[in-house]
Backbone:
C-alpha cells in the first residue's frame, strides 16, 4: 500500500510540471489558434539554458529562473517575429496546418542543434540539497521536486493574475475569445499574439529549468513533453491556467497509478487513453470554456 | 465626415459591393436599408477596417482609411457595434467596457466614458460585475453600444442593434442613440426595423445587391411607396 502511495506522490510532483508545460501550449493555442508542436523542444532548450546559467554564474538553479524566464521571453518574441507572425496572417483553419509544418521543422532543427551543442547524453543540474528528502509518515518526498511543484503552482497563479488584471492580459483574453471584436475595441491583435507567444515560451523555459533540476534533460525529450502538454491541454480545456495546473496533476497521478497497477511499461498508455476518452466524452475539456 | 467613393468589396471570388458611393456628415444620423444579403454588413466591416476593399476609397475627414488596420480605425474615432454584438462573454460588463477604452486616445477619456455609458444605461452600472454571457440579449446590446462608446467615437456604426431584442429594450436603445447623437456623435445605422430606423435618422441610403439603389431624407423615404412595399411589409401598406 505504501509503495502505491509513494508512487502516487511522485506522480503528483511531476504532474505540476506537466501543468506548467501545458500552460504555455494552451496559451499559444488558445490565443493564436496555432499549435506549436516544438513546445517540448523549447522546454528542452530551457533545461539546457538553466544548465548553462547555473554553470556560468554559479547560482542556485531555482534562482536561475530569474535569468531563464527573461531570456525565454526575448527568445519567444524573436521566434514569433521570425516564424509564427507569418502563420497568423492566414485564416484560422490554415493556421493550424501551417503551424504544424513549421512546428515540426522547428522541432527537428532544435533537436539537431542540441545534439551538436551538447551531445545526446542526459544531464541534470546537481545541487547540494539534491538528495534531501522530507519524510511524511513513511512517504519520502524529494525536496527538489516539492519545490518544483510549488514554483509551478506559483508561476501559473502569477500568470492567472496577469491575464486577469493586466491591461494587455485582458487584451490577450479578448483576442483569444474573438480576435475581430478585439480589433474593433482598438487592440493591436498582432501585439497580443506576440505577447502570448513570448509568455508561452517563457513558461516553457521555466518548465525546462525545473525539469533539469528535479529530473533530467537530453536533446530528445522534446516530443515526450509536447505529448504530455497536449494531453493536459485536451484534458483541462482552454482558458483556465489553474484548470491546466489541475489537469497536469491529474495526468501525473493517473500515470503513476497505471504504472503501479499494470506495471511500468503502461505509464504512457494512460495518458493516451485519457486523451481519446476526453475527446469523445467532453471535447472542451474538464475546465474548458 | 465619412466619404466612400466607388467602393468595391468581395469575399474571395464573391463580389459583395460594387461602386458604393455615400457620405455621412459630422453629427448626422444616416440609416442604411436593404434586403438580407445586399451587402450592408460588408459595407460596415469595410469601413471599420476588418475587410479591405478591392477598389475605391474610404475617407474620414479627408484622410484615406482604405488600407488602415482595424485597430487604428478605432483610434481615429470610428466605432462599430458589430452584428451579433460579439462581446467577450467570459468577462464582466466592466471588463468589456474597459476594453473599449483600450486605444491610447480612448484611455485618456476612460472615466468620462464610464460615466457616460452608465448614465445612458443605468442597468449596466448595477450589473457591472456580472459576466456578459449571463445577461439578456437587450442588456448585451447595451454593453455592445457601451463598449463602442468607450472608444470615444465621433461616428458610431451599428449593425442590426434591434435584432432578437425585446421591443421595450429596442425603444431604450434607440432613445440612447438619439441621446448619443445630441452630444455630437454621428450615427450610421444598419437596421431591419425600417420604421424605427427612419424615425431616428436624418437621411438614408438603400442598398440592393451591393449597389446604392436609392437615397433621400428619412421623411421622404418613410413615405416612398417602393420603400414601404419593400421594407415596411404589407401591414404598413395597408395602414397607409
Residues:
Amino acid at each position: 500500500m505504501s509503495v502505491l502511495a509513494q508512487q502516487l506522490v511522485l506522480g503528483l510532483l511531476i504532474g505540476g510540471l506537466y501543468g506548467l508545460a501545458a500552460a504555455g501550449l494552451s496559451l499559444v493555442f488558445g490565443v493564436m489558434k496555432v499549435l506549436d508542436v516544438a513546445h517540448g523542444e523549447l522546454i528542452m532548450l530551457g533545461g539546457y539554458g538553466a544548465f548553462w546559467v547555473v554553470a556560468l554564474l554559479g547560482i542556485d538553479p531555482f534562482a536561475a529562473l530569474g535569468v531563464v524566464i527573461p531570456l525565454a521571453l526575448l527568445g519567444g518574441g524573436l521566434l514569433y517575429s521570425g516564424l509564427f507572425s507569418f502563420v497568423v496572417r492566414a485564416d484560422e483553419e490554415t493556421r493550424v496546418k501551417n503551424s504544424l509544418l513549421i512546428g515540426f521543422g522547428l522541432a527537428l532543427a532544435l533537436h539537431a542543434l542540441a545534439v551538436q551543442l551538447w551531445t545526446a547524453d542526459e544531464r541534470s543540474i546537481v545541487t547540494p540539497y539534491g538528495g534531501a528528502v522530507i519524510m511524511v509518515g513513511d512517504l519520502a518526498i524529494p525536496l527538489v521536486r516539492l519545490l518544483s511543484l510549488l514554483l509551478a503552482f506559483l508561476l501559473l497563479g502569477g500568470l492567472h493574475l496577469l491575464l486577469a488584471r493586466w491591461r494587455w492580459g485582458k487584451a490577450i483574453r479578448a483576442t483569444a475569445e474573438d480576435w475581430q471584436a478585439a480589433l474593433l475595441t482598438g487592440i493591436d491583435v498582432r501585439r497580443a499574439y506576440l505577447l502570448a507567444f513570448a509568455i508561452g515560451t517563457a513558461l516553457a523555459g521555466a518548465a525546462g529549468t525545473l525539469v533539469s533540476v528535479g529530473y533530467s534533460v537530453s536533446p530528445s525529450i522534446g516530443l515526450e513533453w509536447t505529448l504530455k502538454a497536449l494531453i493536459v491541454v485536451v484534458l483541462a480545456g482552454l482558458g483556465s491556467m489553474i484548470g491546466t495546473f489541475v489537469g497536469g496533476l491529474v495526468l501525473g497521478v493517473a500515470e503513476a497509478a497505471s504504472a503501479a497497477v499494470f506495471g511500468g511499461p503502461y505509464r504512457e498508455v494512460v495518458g493516451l487513453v485519457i486523451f481519446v476518452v476526453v475527446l469523445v466524452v467532453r471535447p472542451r475539456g474538464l475546465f474548458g470554456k | 465626415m465619412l466619404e466612400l467613393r466607388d467602393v468595391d468589396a468581395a469575399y474571395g471570388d464573391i463580389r459583395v459591393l460594387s461602386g458604393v458611393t455615400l457620405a455621412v456628415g459630422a453629427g448626422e444620423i444616416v440609416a442604411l436599408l436593404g434586403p438580407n444579403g445586399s451587402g450592408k454588413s460588408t459595407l460596415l466591416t469595410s469601413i471599420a477596417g476588418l475587410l479591405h476593399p478591392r477598389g475605391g476609397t474610404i475617407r474620414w475627414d479627408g484622410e484615406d482609411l482604405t488600407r488602415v488596420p482595424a485597430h487604428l480605425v478605432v483610434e481615429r474615432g470610428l466605432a462599430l457595434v458589430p452584428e451579433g454584438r460579439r462581446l467577450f462573454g467570459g468577462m464582466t460588463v466592466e471588463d468589456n467596457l474597459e476594453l473599449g477604452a483600450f486605444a491610447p486616445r480612448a484611455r485618456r477619456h476612460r472615466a468620462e466614458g464610464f460615466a457616460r455609458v452608465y448614465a445612458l444605461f443605468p442597468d449596466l452600472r448595477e450589473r457591472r460585475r456580472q459576466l456578459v454571457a449571463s445577461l439578456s440579449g437587450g442588456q448585451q446590446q447595451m454593453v455592445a453600444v457601451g463598449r463602442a462608446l468607450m472608444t470615444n467615437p465621433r461616428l458610431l456604426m451599428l449593425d442590426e442593434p434591434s435584432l432578437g431584442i425585446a421591443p421595450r429594450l429596442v425603444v431604450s436603445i434607440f432613445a440612447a442613440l438619439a441621446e448619443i447623437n445630441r452630444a455630437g456623435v454621428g450615427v450610421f445605422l444598419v437596421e431591419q426595423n425600417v420604421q424605427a430606423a427612419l424615425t431616428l435618422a436624418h437621411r438614408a441610403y438603400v442598398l440592393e445587391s451591393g449597389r446604392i439603389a436609392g437615397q433621400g431624407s428619412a421623411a421622404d423615404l418613410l413615405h416612398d411607396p417602393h420603400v414601404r412595399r419593400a421594407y415596411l411589409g404589407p401591414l404598413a401598406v395597408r395602414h397607409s
In short: Residues 80 and 198 of chain B are 20 Å apart (CA to CA). Residues 236-240 of chain B have pLDDT under 50 and may be disordered. The radius of gyration of chain B is 17 Å. The beta strands of chain B are 2-11, 14-24, 29-33, 55-60, 63-64, 78-81, 155-159, 186-190, 203-208, 211-217.
